[in-house]
Amino acid sequence: MDSEQSFPQPESKPPGRERPVLSAKLDAAFTSVYRVFAFLGRFFKELFRPPYEFNEIIRQCYDVGYKSLFLICMTAFITGLVFTKQSRPSLSNFGATSWLPSLVAIAIIRALAPLVTALICAGKVGSQIGAELGSMKVTEQIDAMEVSATNPFKFLVVSRILATTIMIPVLMCFFAGFGLWGSYVDVHSNESTSFTFFIEKAFEKINFMDIWTSVVKALVYGFTIGAVGCIRGYNAKQGTMGVGRAANSAVVISMFLIFIEEMLIVQIANVFR
Amino acid sequence: MKAASQRPLPGQAAQPVIALHHVHKAFGENVVLRGVSLDLFPGENVVVLGRSGTGKSVLIKIISGMLQPDSGGVRVLGDEVTMLNDKQLQQLRLKIGFSFQHSALYDSMSVKENLEFPLVRNKRHLTRRERRMAVDRVLDAVGLSQTIHQYPSELSGGQRKRIGIARTLILQPEIMLYDEPTAGLDPITSTEINNLIREVQQRFNTSAIIITHDLTCAKTTGDRVAILLDGHFFREGSFEEVFADRDERVRAFYDYNFTG
Lengths: 273, 260
What we know:
Strand content of chain A: under 5%
Helix content of chain A: over 70%
Oligomer: heterodimer
Distance between the termini of chain A: 75 Å
Largest sheet of chain B: 6 strands, mixed
Number of helices of chain B: 9
Structural class of chain A: mainly alpha
Number of strands of chain B: 10
CATH superfamily of chain B: P-loop containing nucleotide triphosphate hydrolases
């Protein structure tokens, strides 16, 4: 049935299972780690290689940022209000309620804003990315992109990771703003403090290093949420069960990594402080 | 209805658009293809018949470069697929249309966006008006102009298949690969899809490999039929030639489809 042509032969590989180098489980673990780094390596390679999917990046930024904004702002306002309310009795025992704005500002800007924003987005955005890409994978939509001469990695993965990396810091700024506003509402209702005085006191103890560290944290968390969601979704298997697993593991792994990163970045920031 | 295939007559030299040469493929210990060879000539529709799990879909995934064979040669439009880099493979894929078993329409996009998707990325020089004209042209070809603003979830199975075919046609491919085009469809819709495959062959002058286990589809759409069994082509020829065979495996296939 074949024509008379000369075929260059690809390197032939005998069929059958290869013997594990260490043990089957260890081999699988190292292979998984290799695949994660290969995936991240491909992300950085595709990131700088044209053509760029600007429209898709903007659409993803809208999805990640604008659609999470209300949730972030509400959570931040309530967190600021409750945090101030809970801290007041302890400080009033020492007659130090005037320190409330500084205390709340340090807590929100240094720790709560990047961490809580990231945790909320890990749940909301991470699961969405995992499920969306997972579903596309098991219904062959990613394969369909590939065979229609489109680079699915650039369109789906690069745009999503970029969107989360850009938008989590933006959402963090909103969290900080609304958190301080919530705190101000409580302080104002108890001490009739003016807004200007509250802001002055709040930023008295905040320096450039605090803000810079929080921005770096938010960038790292944003990248983590996007990357984990994409890795889990893009490699989803086994039908609908695989989609559920991809969404679930995207959230769990992101949250776990965010806490590890929080610990490391705080340690590094303390060295420079 | 049958289009005139350009398969060469004995003694006539013609370059096949697809040439598979002793292709082997295994997944772990499961050997799927054991030295498969096949030529597809310009303007020809070849139907690959076989039971589920015999490696039919693997075969067309190897042709489109989505899977790598373990050994053997895969030449498509003169290019050895296994030797191409990413960019060359992408260029080759512009000439190959792949219609998926479950259509694989992008469910977050409307029909219009689905059809424009490959155009926007591969023919960037086209204006919005030219893109719209291309969309209208392929929608007209599959007879679904009215669905342009609908989403895949609003379409029937047959309509989704048609839109899937339209999406591949928009890049004006030279080769079409159909993966189970009539699977899961009622007999009337299946007939419509079979007729559409023939129309595509004639109107767009394509060559095609059609993967199916539906003998009505094979009879209607194929100029040539090849039965894949135990990892290699067991019988090959016209539908009538192949099913004139008294081999019980061939008869079992025929009887199951036509006499129930």
